[in-house]
Prior knowledge:
Largest sheet: none
Oligomer: single chain
Number of helices: 5
CATH class: Mainly Alpha
Radius of gyration: 28 Å
Helix content: over 70%
Order of helices and strands: HHHHH
Distance between the termini: 21 Å
CATH architecture: Up-down Bundle
CATH topology: Glutathione S-transferase Yfyf (Class Pi), Chain A, domain 2
Number of domains: 1
Amino acid sequence: MKQNSRQLIEAAVANRAALENEIASSQKRLAETGARIPEMAATVDLDDAQAMAELGKLQLEVSIFPARIMVKEEALAKAEAGILAACEEFIRTVLNPQARAIEARARAKVEAELRQHLETGPDLIRGVEHSKLVRSAVANVMGLEANPHDGPTGYAGRILKAWQATEQFEAKLK
Length: 174
């Protein structure tokens, strides 16, 4: 489940990157083609069918590329929404439950150690809550920002790093 959810995020990020590259490539080709038209139109032999066909092809490309770019930009927006959806699913089904379980295990471990020295009551609760282990576990749970400020790709990267940190913390806890 963990790997599958992680792979969904990675696939969504890769899809977005591919669309971004396609858009950049189309924009470059549009600029290059658009730059060739005035030069060619000024020098073309109007009786040369092959040259006129080439000029017509260039003009057709220049008129088609903006629509292609627009469609790919719409797909890019959907890809970004897909990244966010994959991230939220990963948080809901993997990261949050795992982090909460780690936090509970850390509390139980500290409480078991402190029970040897403290009676049940406010001192024990305070000792558990202020222990380094529990505070570290809570920091793992609270480590993600709710509103990504560096875009969906950056958000996905932070989520995967948080998952790695959670995995590492869990290994220390065992």
